[in-house]
Amino acid sequence: xxxxxxxxxxxxxxxxxxxxxxxxxxxxxxxxxxxxxxxxxxxxxxxxxxxxxxxxxxxxxxxxxxxxxxxxxxxxxxxxxxxxxxxxxxxxxxxxxxxxxxxxxxxxxxxxxxxxxxxxxxxxxxxxxxxxxxxxxxxxxxxxxxxxxxxxxxxxxxxxxxxxxxxxxxxxxxxxxxxxxxxxxxxxxxxxxxxxxxxxxxxxxxxxxxxxxxxxxxxxxxxxxxxxxxxxxxxxxxxxxxxxxxxxxxxxxxxxxxxxxxxxxxxxxxxxxxxxxxxxxxxxx
Length: 285
Description:
By secondary structure, this protein is an all-alpha fold. It has one domain. Helix content is 64%, strand content 0%. The protein contains 12 helices and no strands. The termini are far apart.
């Protein structure tokens, strides 16, 4: 009699679809994901005097500088929004996007030592980055809501029901960060120059996002080319956030939906490139 064929509970294969996310497998490794989240969160303020307080101090100092330089000296308009609230809102969202995207873009090079020794779903690392960045965002949102409550109390801002749309905005910010991050993470394994340019590119990209300059001012200066301001997929998200919580901003639902579609396409492209690079990155990193 032939021996019964042995059945395996987990099978690791090199062949898989380029669109495959293996979310079920990531869920099986959820303890590892939470361990990565804990590692990223603790390492961000390890050996510091003020610790997690830097999550408050950083946006406070940045907002004060922006308010003094751009709102005071340059006297740039803020769409009728109190300057402190305008810059704090932009810095809060931008901090989440830029931190997440730069961290995800470093997934392959930053974890090459772990990837080369043990198997686990590689998607666990960028997902843990998104979660740890969201924890920072949650802390900074406390500061934003405190300042927002002050202006609401004195009747200077008027939130509306679009504020309840905020979780969706955060999800698409995370998806856009994940998509771009996976693209650059895959490319930097072969082309290290991109990692040097990425930090500069992100800083430059902030000027095309309504963090410092309101969209209305950009469109006014561009004149007939004002539509170029809407090509940035982050612009409708930032404007919806400000419109919902502050009651002011250049918000348009059609542009927001277009932004969502574009983000989904970037995410799909990121998944394809990430899955393709996952097979051979350890030979080039």
